[in-house]
Please model this.
Amino acid sequence: MPGGTVYGVLLNFREEVEAWAPRMGEPPYKAPPKAPVLYVKTANTWSPHDSAIAMPEGVGEVEVGATIAMVMGEGGKVAGYVLMNDLSLPHASFFRPPVKFKCVDGFLGIGPAMRVGGDPAAFTLEVRINDELRHAADFSQLVRSAPRLLADVSEFMTLGPGDVLMLGCNAGRPLARAGDRIEITAPGFETLMNTLAEVA
Model:
């Protein structure tokens, strides 16, 4: 489990940016973001591999945000990478999604092991829900590559050892329901699996 703060990043896949581009000129911002758009996944959201994640009462579906994250080591260096299942309640906000959509208890599945080394631009992942392939992501399609993202974030905040910075989630995130088993796989990584617990 993380030893520091976990940060997510929005709009870091080209396909996602293209999907939202028509709305980026609308108020209140009236322009695309110039810096990385970050949010925090608070400690109450963290769920280990192979755990059951409770669905909130009255919620029918959740959005599965499969990603790979950088785990920070000493001196601002990347110690390794880990799979993450960044769940959220479906929502239409793209610049600053309210905390109530992103920081629900248990809403961040965390891979069982950190991968050391590798080229993030060569990473790919797949999402299966109940053994059916539902989503894929190619990290060569990032707006900001992993080194560029880390450099841009480091211009305005310091990431310490144990902090985690996600690389972003691609467009087309699948929806899952109570009882579904979500499996995220990527070459060179240990599989991350979580089950959505039935609503009591």
